[in-house]
Amino acid sequence: MTLIPFDDRDGWIWMDGEFVPWREAKVHVLTHALHYASSVFEGARMYDGEVFELTRHSQRLHRSAEILDMQVPFSVAEIDRACVETAQRMGLSDAYVRPIAWRGPEQMGVSAQATKTHVAVAVWAWPSYFDPEEKRRGIRLTHAKYRRPAPDTAPTEAKASGLYMICTLSKHAAEREGYADALMLDYRGYVAEATGANIFLVRDGAIHTPTPDCFLNGITRQTVIGLARQHGFEVIERHIHPDELPSFSEVFITGSAAEVTPVREIGEHRFTPGNISLTLMDDYSQLVRNRRKAA
Ligand SMILES: Cc1ncc(COP(=O)(O)O)c(C=O)c1O
256 CA to middle of ligand 1, Å? Predict the structure, then answer.
């Protein structure tokens, strides 16, 4: 795979209210966020020219910033507009949309009271989070070494950059062993999520999913729960112990980037993408293209 470095592309990035040529959208090396992880971000997808659940993403950016004691100096409506206009400037109608807010270089040190909060929006083409062939068959997950922290250990409700340190480490370890991703447990030892997506498990026609009390209650997760209930599938939110993994027949993960992706392995356990995973995968792809009504 040839990677085009993300700082060497054509186009425009929206930065603090203005469009900046892509290669000039830079920050100083003494940016607080770079040293202390004082940044929050979003990831949304645009389908046929419309960003799915755009306002919910912009609202979550605001909420994540608030949780990190930062104030986004643009309204939710302004962030919405920035996302749409950036995609238009990029000439993209199917794309990944990445808003980010971070503390600047005005102050350096643990205290960051004097820093300004900066905001940028970048949009790029990102067709599939997982290899499309693998995605259809179901991806392979291994077990992650790191666990999702407790809500009194880290601000787990925020989509905060700092929380991704253990995700990158877990994803790297998984990829080194030939897996697509890793299943993370939570601080209590319950099944939590993948490194960038929520998880659902099917047993006897019912869908079980972990209670999101220490990880993101994903926008896709909430959407898929609605779609499942529309279909009359039972959805049970509860703590799931990893010892239960062999009792499930289907597993899938959800996220704005990952969409609905079936899973065929978690470590030593095997699953077969079946009716429920494939129905919801299909429903979700129709919904995001406005071909189906939300619940
Ligand atoms: C760690 C993590 N969990 C869950 C999700 C799913 O969230 P959403 O469906 O809102 O994209 C994401 C993706 O944003 C994520 O990075």
Answer: 7
